[in-house]
Amino acid sequence: MDHDDKEVAKRVLGFKQVPFYVVLDKEGDIVQMGSKKHIDFDNIPGVIKDEPAESDTAANNSNGAFEILDLDF
Fold first, then answer.
1. Residues near 40 by Cβ (< 8 Å), separated by ≥ 6?
2. Nearest to 35, CA basis, from 65, 9, 14, 58
3. Which of 37, 46, 63, 71 has the highest CB neighbour count under 10 A?
4. What is the pLDDT of residue 61?
5. Which residues is 34 bridged to in the sheet?
6. Phi/psi of residue 18, nearest 5 degrees
């Protein structure tokens, strides 16, 4: 984006810092927007998460618990 486009986006979407996320549904409507702390990355429409294979879980965790990772998108 050039400077003028950034200024328009800041005015229309109301953000003052980056990164700033905008999540759209399949119709192009905004369903979530904000900084990382405002986005529910586990509840994004249409996103299907892979479930780890049972053998992967057993190999990585002897107690069968999943490891929680903080991913920066």
1. 32
2. 14
3. 46
4. 52
5. 21
6. -125, 150
Q: Decide: 54 and 60 in contact? Cβ < 8 Å.
A: no
3-state secondary structure of 18: coil
Euclidean distance between CA atoms 60 and 67, whole angstroms: 8
pTM (predicted TM-score): 0.49
> How far apart, in whole angstroms, are the C-alpha atoms of residue 24 and residue 62?
39
The pair of structure tokens assigned to 64 is 């069968």
pLDDT, tens digit only, all 73 positions of the chain = 788 988 898 888 888 877 888 888 888 888 888 888 888 888 887 777 777 666 555 555 555 555 665 666 5
Q: Fill in the amino acid letter for 38.
A: H
